[in-house]
Amino acid sequence: MTQAVTPVLLHPGFGAGVPVEARARAAELRDEWDAADQNVDAQSFWKETGKRFLANKVGVAAAGVVLLLVVGAVFAPLITSADPLVGQPTDRLQNIGSPGHVLGTDEQGRDVWARVLYGGRLSLLAGFVPTVGAALIGTIIGVTSGMLRGVVGTILMRFMDVLYAFPAILLAIAVGSSLGPGLTNTIIAVTIVFIPPVARVAESATRRVVVQEFIEAAHLSGASGFRVARSQILPNVLNDIIVYSSGLVGVAMIIAASLSFLSLGSPPPVPEWGYMLNSLRGSLYTTPLVTLVPGFFIFLTSVAFNMASDALREAMDSRL
Amino acid sequence: MLRLAARRVGLAVPILVGVSIIVFLLMTILPGNAEAGLVPEDATPAQRAAIRDSLGLNDPLPVRYVAWLVEALRGDLGYSLQRRREVADLLVQAWGNTFVLAAVSAVLGITLGLLLGYVAGTRRGTLVDRVVSIVSLAGLSVPSFFVAIILLSIFAGGLKMFPSGGATFDEGPIAAIRSLVLPVASGSLITMAITARVTRAGIVDVLSADFVETLRAKGLSELEVRTHVLRNAISPVLTTSGVQIGALLGGSVLVETIFRWPGMGQLLYTAISSRDLVVVQGATLVIALTFVIINLMVDILQAAVDPRVRGAVA
Amino acid sequence: MPEAITSVQAEQPGENGNSLPKRPLLELIDISKEFDVRDNGRRATLSAVNEVSLKVRTGRTLGIVGESGCGKSTLARVIVGLHAASSGEMLFENRQIETTGRRPRKIVEQMQMVFQDPSSALNPRATVGESIGFPLRVQGASKKEIDARVKQVITDVGLPASYVGNYPHQLSGGQRQRVNIARALALQPKLVVLDEAVSALDKSIQAQVLNLLADLQRDYQLTYVFISHDLNVVEYISDEVAVMYLGQVVEEGSAKALYENPRHPYTQLLLSSIPTLDPAQSNRDEPIGAGDSEIPSPISPPSGCRFRTRCPFVMDICSEVLPPRVEAAPEHIVACHLYSEGAERNDGAVAAAAS
After folding, report:
1. Distances from the Cα of B89 to the Cαs of B121, B264, B267, B279, in angstroms?
2. Pairing mode, strands C95-97 and C325-329
3. Of A173, A185, A40, A38, which is closest to residue A126 (Cα–Cα)?
4. Across the strands, what pairs with A111?
């Protein structure tokens, strides 16, 4: 505020219908804007993010690896003819590259390559499902408490704090051992572990958005709180949640594999990478490389997810 | 400072209560869980009911929680039929071993991580930076039990440099230290990787801040500038270090199992395998409480180091 | 654009001909707003708005001016119902409306607001068309109706209709503020509260938007409450002006009377701090004493007259008694002990200081 508004700029006739020059000037201005409009492609945030992600080679490669692993797991029967459940006891503990068994065999003579492919089904499922589940539930809890604050919000977030006070793997183990072994229970356990951090991210993003003026404007249109949350807040907190959750898939896989390593996962003989690693442990000194195979696949999937997640974060961050 | 510490302790109390409620509920709420390990597998339903009754398992949940909590506060966490030992006794012994393992891993991992992260952050874009970035991303993505198995196959299997199994300090300091090497390595590798990642990000962030230019313009020596940078970048490292120690405590279940280190983790593993839920409950409670207390200490330490955090609380 | 004008005008003349323009559209009676806050860890009450009574006349503009933190933005939000008032009453079109709870949608829609910050006032994830159309969608209008109405208001605020598909970050500050105005107009409200609506804009853009607001007021038969810290802008657009200090209205009157003959020492202080390019008005540059001192906290405002800690004419009575509202001249109300009964002699002193 250093200068007074000069009356010249505030010509009362502007737009009042009288001065032709003013009208002409306004028309000119509109033409300029129209011209500028031709250059600016009205792109949505998600389109731009997609474009930037595709421009990131590391991210695309990582996403490609994830896709390959998924395809391998889904079409396992088409890729290998070996049975993942039944082995030839005479072929026990073959090393990598032995004839007929690219990745060797395990202690029961089952083909490790086949078990890795089929095992990807459960391992990937145990990475994806809890992440998606936790993202959904955590978002609902976080957005609700971010909007309401007050007693409901405080109680919800304090409950999240308590769950967050456990080391992640320990909470998963505790829930898992309470529920007993099984894929569903593993998924429930890992989901519970991830709800609090997602809720925190969602809550802090919501708090940031909720104080902005466009939320007040939305309330002034008479919209209900739920409608404001869905149409105004959610689109603005979603990218934070997606970036955060995408980074959780790798961790979810590791935790699920840990549970399965501790025999809290799906019961044998159905292959799962964590359980495979544990049962191959006995043959660590005879066929060490074969033992490392399932661990390597857990690692590969997790790295790929983390790299893809990093690329996604970058693509979303560099917004205008 | 003292007031702030008192405040933080006050805030931790409800969390501790919440943690104890969850641990209690997890092990009791599902049918069959409460008496698991206390009732013989082959008991008839009538015997089962009688035992339930005598243990007070038919009382309402809040009553049972309070009774359990009172006993727990007195140091009585129950009796393990499988082990024929008091749970508290088992835990005391195991806790010490886990503490040694986790503390050494944490100190080693955080120190090395800080160093690597600092080097990478100040030499942004160089080969060193890239290597550190890749290694730390790998560290973030690798399960600790996989690292443990790799180390085992190389150093215990191939090279036979270190023992694969745990010897505690009862068997002499040298044996103990030798058998600590591999578990510490597998724990601290991941801690190191994550710390390096966070430190690097913090350093890069701070280096691009305006105040660094000001410091240089003021004529401070490069060493003095670096000290300022490190001090400002350390806060996020402290924040994650709490979580890291949690990961080490939780991960101990796997690492200790693989290296047969007689700590909480191995105790928990054997208890899970035999569905000895009294021990699972006790061990979960003690590890979680340890984690809460460590986070509390990190919080207070952070407030001591970073005036911004202090301001936010006061 | 012409269609909208005629339809709006067609509704209005019956109940509101030019013959009776002075009937207030909105009347505030003793409106107060307090917030519970924590002050150094202790619970405290922040008195943001204190017993404010104002009348907003149909088709006119009431300017509310004051320094930042004086409660004018809070008052704006209480008026439109975004904040519940702590106490007080409100009359809208001579009917009492809810001030402390949720209002019926019919009332909410009649009062819209234009916000200060062009970057936070628009949803960054919504196109211009979606932002303007949102209130209509909430109302349950059909897609066709929404498209037509959005096109109408966006051209009315001087933007090309092709902008409906653009995102806020693709627009300039001035363009965004036009979108902001268009959204407020989408529901054809009677009252528009403009909270620092042009403060974030460049001077030249400010002028354009102010002129646009004047046009729209005429075409849409709008009543404005125009809130700003910028005295020049308020003077330009307002018919009546109220001056706020620490949550209270200290002086109100016609814009002309108030700017030419400010009565309250605070108004005089404000006007004296306007920078001006016109040397003939240089008297405004005269300092009037303790003007530089700190504004007291609204958590524990001074007793009696809240301005007394900064007032150059402070008297004993000021700390004891809240100054009553006095009609110092016709339609010119001042809340200051200098103008209470028996204070004639001081009037001369103030006038001398002010001129």
Report:
1. 47, 12, 12, 11
2. unpaired
3. A185
4. A105
pLDDT in tens, A58-107: 889 989 999 999 998 888 888 877 777 777 777 777 777 777 777 777 77
Report the candidate in C293, C317, C291 with the shortest Cα–Cα distance to residue C304.
C317
| SS3 sequence of C179-209 | HHHHHHHCCCCCEEEEECCCCCCCHHHHHHH
Average pLDDT over residues A205-215: 90
What fold does the segment set C26-258 form as a domain?
Rossmann fold (3.40.50)
Nearest by Cα to A292 from A278, A307, A272: A278
Residue C42: C-alpha distances to residues B6, B8, B312 (Å): 17, 17, 15
Q: Do C275 and A1 touch (CB under 8 A)?
A: yes
List the single range of A85-99, B179-193, C30-44 with lowest mean pLDDT. Answer: A85-99
Does residue B233 have a pLDDT over 60?
A: yes
Exposed/middle/buried for residue A266 (C-beta within 10 Å: 0-12, 13-18, 19+): buried
* Res. C184 pLDDT band, cuts 50 70 90: very high
Give the best residue of A209, A213, A215 to mutate against chain C (max C CB count within 10 A): A213
* Domains observed in chain B: 87-277 (1.10.3720.10)
Q: Given CB atoms, is C159 within the 8 Å cutoff of chain A? A: yes
Query: Of C193, C198, C191, C196, which Cα lies nearest the Cα of C176?
Result: C198
ipTM score here? 0.83
Which of A3, A5, A49 to mutate to probe the C interface, most C CBs <10 Å? Answer: A5
Question: What is the per-residue pLDDT for C239?
Answer: 92
- CB neighbours of residue A184 within 10 Å: 10
Beta-carbon contacts of residue C58 (< 8 Å; ≥ 6 apart): C16, C21, C23, C24, C25, C190, C223
- List phi, psi (to 5°) of A56: -90, 110
- Hey, what are C288's tokens? 């009037």
Domain boundaries, chain C: 26-258, 262-354
**Cα(B211)–Cα(B214) distance, rounded to whole angstroms?**
5
Distance from A170 to chain B by nearest Cα, in Å?
Answer: 5
d(CA B118, CA B164): 34
